[in-house]
Every structure is written in structure tokens, then in C-alpha cells.
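We examine the record.
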Amino acid sequence: MDLINAQIILINYLYAMIEKTNSDARWLWMYRCFNVLRFKIHYWGLFFLNVRENFTSFVIVTKRIHMELNQRIKEKMIEKDIRPSVPRTKIYKYLLEHRNHPTVDTIYKGLQSELTSLSKTTVYNTLSLLTAKGLVRAIGIEDKELRYDADIHTHGHFKCVKCHAIFDFELDLESIDLKGLSEFVAEDYHLNIKGVCRTCKKA
């Protein structure tokens, strides 16, 4: 019980930090931490009835965090001269909440029940717009289709050829020696690696 209460306190702390931070990277990381704790507490709460007295404050914080996220999404879109329509905000929010580097088809299936009028064309056009405006990165690690990532800080991607999962890894640009490009200006980096992940290697 003490562990659950501690995580509820941490939820409130994360919300306070998210309200204050101006860094997109820190905000995204903290929001994802919030989601992990939110699902854990909800799961445990189904089994521990006496924890439910904490649910009122927990639900309030959950609603506040989603209101904050929706407001941030709209502000970021407006900053990039994008009209924050419902389908666009939902698609961008889906990318923020899912780190599995989804495809157009994955996003469409994930939002179809919520947005019954959504089409694959709308998803594709929205992703193209978000990519062009710099809010989303398109990952060309697949042979036939693009995947998308809302984490736009410079990093690489590793695809496991066995389980087909895609993992992020940090990329130190200062350590990369681009021989033969001394008089060139690099504006964007895409480093994609294919191989076998740690889990599949042990299997």
C-alpha cells in the first residue's frame, strides 16, 4: 500500500514538473513516466479496495494532465502554423503516447474506434504535414513503409530482424567523423541499424 501511495505522490510531482518545464524533450519524457505510473496504479487499484480512497485525487490529476497535454499539442501546432483540428491533435497525441514507432496503418487502427470518420488518407496527410513542419520524424527503416516518431531529438533506430521491434538509441554527433564532408553542412541525421535485439539473442 505504501508503494502505491508513494507512486500517487510521484504522479502529482510529475504533473507539477510538466506544468513548469519548457523543454519539449523533458516534457515528453515526464508525460511518458506519468502514463506508466497511471496504468500501474489503475491495475493495482482493481485488487486493493482500500486504495480507492486515493482514486478521487488520482482521477483529478489524470484529467488535469490530459488537459495539459491537449493544450500543449494545440499550442505546438499553432506555433508551426498547423490548424489543430480534432483528427490532427488525436494523431499527434497518439504518437506522443506510443513509442513503438507506428506506421500509418497502426495509427489508423488505433484511432478508428475513437474517430469513426477517420480515413487512412487523413492519417497519411496529417503525418506528412507534421513531418514537414518538424513535429514528427519519418523513419525509413522498413523496406516498404515509413514509421513515425514524435521524439524529434537526434537519435538512432535499431530494428530487430526477428521480432521486428524498433528501439531508440542515443547518438553522439560530436563523436562521428564525417570524412570527406569537411566543407559540407549537415542539417539532418538518420542512422538506422538492423540486427538482433538482446531478447531475441538470448532466445
In short: Residues 1-5, 41-52 have pLDDT under 50 and may be disordered. The helical segments are 2-20, 24-45, 55-79, 86-97, 104-111, 120-132, 198-202. Residues 57 and 169 are 36 Å apart (CA to CA). The first helix runs from residue 2 to 20.
